[in-house]
Amino acid sequence: MTRTPIRRGIRRVFRLAMRGGPSDASAIDAEIQSHLEQRIDALVRLGYSRDDAAAEARRRFGDIAAARARLIAQARRHGRRMTILEWFGTLRQDVVLTGRRVVTRPTFALVAVCTLALGVGANTTVFAWMDGLVLNPLPVVHNANTLVALQTLTPSGGTQSTSYPDYLDWAAASHTLRDVVAYRREQLSLRLSADDDARSIWGVLVSSNYFDALGLQPALGRFFRQDESGPVAKAGEAPVAVIGYEMWQRDFAGRGDVLGKPVWANGQRLTIVGVAPRGFHGTNVGFGFDFWAPVTMEPSLLFQPAAKLTYRNSRWIRVFARLAPNSSVALAQQEMKQIGRDLSSRYADDKNVEPAVVALLDAEASAFLKPTFTALLGATGLLLLVVVFNMTGLALVRTAARRDELAIRAALGAGRARIAQQFVVEAALIAVVAIPVALGVAQLGRSVLDHFLDHVTFPVATPPALSAGAVVFTVATMSVVVFVIALWPAMRAWRRIAASLGSGGGRTMTGRTRGRDAIVILQLALSLVVVASAALLERSLARLRSIDTGLIDPPHTLLVSSDFDLAGEGYAGFGDNAIVRERRLPLAAEILRRTRALPGVQNAVLMDTPPLGLVSGFDAVDAQVVGYVPAPNETMVFQISFVTPGFFSTIGPAVVRGREFTELDRADAPPVVVVNEAFARRFWPGGDPAISAIGKTVRAASRTATIVGVTRDAKYHALSDATPPFIYMPYAQWSPSALTLALRTSGDPIALVPAVRGIFHDVAAALPVIDPRTLEDQVSGALTLQRLAATLSTVLGGLALLVATLGLYGTLSESVERRRSEIAVRMALGARAGDVLRLFATRGLLLVVIGVVLGTPVFLGASRLLQSQVYGVGGWADLIALGVTAAMFTVVAVGTSFITASRAARVDPVTAMRSP
Amino acid sequence: MTTDARLIRGTLDLLILKTLAAGAFNGFEIVSELESRSGGALEIEDSALYQALHRMEARGLIDAEWGVSDNNRRARYYSITRAGRTHLRAESRRWLESALIVQRVLT
Predict the structure, then answer these.
(1) pLDDT range class, residue A10, cuts 50, 70, 90
(2) Residues of B in contact with A61 (CB under 8 A)
(3) Does residue A13 surpass a pLDDT of 60?
(4) Is residue A574 scored above 50 in pLDDT?
(5) Closest chain A residue to the Cα of B69, Cα to Cα
């Protein structure tokens, strides 16, 4: 007899797969055959000959072929319907089953959701930033991939801004580019009504084709017309403005009557003619521009001569353009070279400069952020891998624990797909819960990132953390991760089950742990990479922090910025710039006098631009050193700063030779300058450059000035920059419009801010008070990106180490559980607790050592990639970081092993041996 | 004979179910049983029978499994399910009622 079939009813009770429909083709054939034979038997019994009986049986059956085809088709149809119904049935079962399991044993689900949410959420945070700032930095802009940035090349091969007439010539001559756009970002003081408080904003002055080139439509009103800022528009004749969507919503409540309303920019009345589309913040990534005016308004807004638009050697314009159809970056490059040559031969003052297509606009715009975020994405990616391995390990352990249940299901006929489905359903349920949690984590991460931008002095436009792209990214990542985690153990479980069914069952599933050990080792190795990289970045940050900036007492120094030009109206009212300039010195002196009288203030000084701003604001001049013949193409452009007496002794850097500026270096006194040691070294090398420099003369801006002092080298822009030659000039001899008040106090500098505001208001009510901060904040503001990278990678490294440690703990304690009876036997035979302890501690340590050994080459590779991100850490630094990390890992391993091993050592031989 | 040609589908199902109510039979046995019960008046085409059987099996009215016939041939044995019995009861009543009506009108 055949094997006893399992009846359907039983299958149904045990929720087993119901196979087939009524029949498949071979069964139908068999049934027809059986029928014919029975009929023949019956007919033969009635006296038919066998042949006649066969013929009669066929006749009675009808058209056999047609009947067979119909039956098969019917069976197929039914089969399909059953498959779908069955699938829904099993799906429901699996969902219910999983739900029940989660309710009764919630630990695994809870751990899984938390770990996955952390891993994926961290990735979403960084991805959202990458997406917004680096991958797709100009979101509203139409076809950003055909926009190119153009700059003027300096003779030495660097890039600089462009003059307005050059820009016009490029635009007129180029065929490979259409919509060649000029723009210039300016810090402006803005008032929304005549008696409004002035606020400091960043605005963009643009040519009339700016918005067209970007493919934008106004949310309201219009953009600029040709006659306002086109090629033939005159300077200062178009007092109009376009405001940003956010400003419209925030300050004008999104009302339609905003058109035609006046605003005052640097005291000049402009009329709002349009509103930019939502989400558009200009073309400088990270800057949140909210205000646009015609580029032809530049001279009048900045109190400069209208001729600024015609000077060919006044380079202040930035240019971008849309590639013409059928053109390319290479073609444009070539054409620009030719245009540059033509212009050079035509204009004497344009010698040796040529325009160059620098890069795609969006790539250029985000280039400075790319390395940091790439590194962060790498770190979060590694964290995610650690999480994946960890969860896989956990899932494997759990699968092993469920082996009996799975084996029974398999024995009762559940196929591979059916078993896999159960795992997938479980995974999907976990994903469904983990995705919103991950998005929450991403939102949290976003606010942490925002926190780092607190010190940044320009309005920052950041992408929303939960953009559609970020959500898609989260869902996709989570799904992939979860299914990888689910399917591996499922496949493994199936192989084991298949093997154990073949061998007649038994404890085959508890056999080897090598796979799980490998998973733990991988986690340790990968987290080693993250932690050691974090250590490297932290060390680099510490180095940067300990750099000698040349500043004397940053924590006790308060900076308050302003600008006489920004005061606008009140001063412009005098009519002529010269008068404004003359009014500056008495006002500056008054501010200094009153500030010095504040309680606790040791000294107060003024400078035009504070050091170490995130955006370098120092002026630069062409200068000749008398008696020095520059090499051909040698750049003789130097950064300069205008400072009042006491600057060097109050703020720093200190003067090492010669003297500081004094009150005697007045406007009518002989011009003097102070230079830094780098300047002295460059022009008077050999001997003591600082001594040699004193008394020499420098010609700059048509004045000849004597060097009266030399300062120590200091940091001026980025902390990691090499020290450039630098020139200081007396504030009184130049009276620049920009001013930053710096005061040193014995107490809390921030406490003095209200008093300083009062002084500014009393001295000149319209003078804006911009961004009061301590000099220390200013310095750490310069380190924003580095701090961001170091802190985030430390957090990520901590998470990775935590997850890997949990993995280690998991595998060790699982092996303690598994070897419980073995330990009991050993202890019964005389092994002491110490021996057991050593057994497991050795294993934990071994796993860590292998992990460290495997992680080391990966980290060394990663540290090469980080080269551009780290400062002042030599060849040994990565090895030191590695050593510190490895030591940390060892401590963690020993600790973890000790905890699990001491549990093993407490095994009571008697009970352990009695239990199965 | 041509009775089977006019035998409407539902009626054949009903007859099969009625037969199976007495026990499990294979296809050939069902045909033989129906023919002998009707005194040879019903001649059912075998292919139509199997279509009906398979259709009812798909609907869960009957169950089938392979077994061995009296003279030792492998054959598929059909048995009526609970759903099949319910269906049989309801459909028999309906059939008899409508037959009665038709009879009343005709006689």
Answers:
(1) low
(2) 45-47
(3) no
(4) no
(5) A38
Q: What are phi and psi of A32, to 5 degrees?
A: -60, -45
| Main-chain phi, psi angles of A874, to 5 degrees | -75, -165
Q: What is chain A's mean pLDDT, rounded?
A: 82
Nearest to B51 among A21, A39, A71 (CB): A71
Average pLDDT over chain B reads: 85
Whether B50 sits inside 8 A of A75 (CB atoms) is no
What pLDDT shows up at residue B6?
Answer: 47
Distance from CA of A497 to the nearest CA of B (A): 29
Give the mean model confidence (pLDDT) for residues B40-61: 86
Alpha carbon distance A674, A713 (integer Å): 12
How many C-beta atoms lie closer than 10 Å to residue A241's C-beta? 23
> What pLDDT does residue A358 have?
66
Cβ neighbours for A240, distance < 8 A, ≥ 6 positions apart: A224, A228, A270, A271, A272, A273, A293, A294
Tell whether the model's pLDDT for residue A507 goes beyond 60: no
Residue-wise pLDDT tens digits, A617-642:
788 888 889 888 888 777 788 889 99
DSSP 8-state code for residue A136: S
> Residues A41-93: pLDDT tens digits?
888 988 899 999 999 888 888 888 888 898 888 888 888 887 788 778 878 88
Query: Is A67 an 8 Å CB contact of chain B?
Result: yes
Kind of pairing between the strands at A315-323 and A177-191: antiparallel
pLDDT value of residue A352 = 56
A41–B71 C-beta distance less than 8 A: yes
- Candidate from B47, B57, B74 with C-beta closest to A22: B57
With contact defined as beta carbons under 8 Å apart, do A848 and A854 qualify?
no
- For residues A756 and A596, the answer to whether their CB atoms sit within 8 Å is no
Chain B residues with at least one Cβ partner in A under 8 Å: 26-29, 32, 43, 45-48, 50-51, 54-55, 57-58, 63-66, 69, 71, 73-76
Structure-token match 């008495």, residue found: A586
Interface of A with B in 73-132 (CB under 8 A): 74-75, 78
With CA atoms as reference, report the closest residue to A883 among A539, A381, A379: A539
Across-strand partners of A621?
Answer: A638
By C-alpha distance, the chain A residue nearest B49 is A61
Out of A7, A8, A37, whose CB is closest to B73?
A: A37
> Are B74 and A5 inside 8 Å of each other by CB?
no
pLDDT recorded at residue A501: 61
Residues 423-482 on A with a CB inside 8 Å of B are none
Percentage of chain A modeled with pLDDT above 70: 87
Structure tokens at A482: 């979860």
Q: Token pair 């005697």 is at which residue?
A: A664
Q: How far apart are alpha carbons A101 and A230 in whole angstroms? A: 71
User: Which helix (H) or strand (E) covers residue A412, if one does?
Assistant: none
Q: Report d(CA A765, CA A866) in Å as an integer.
A: 49
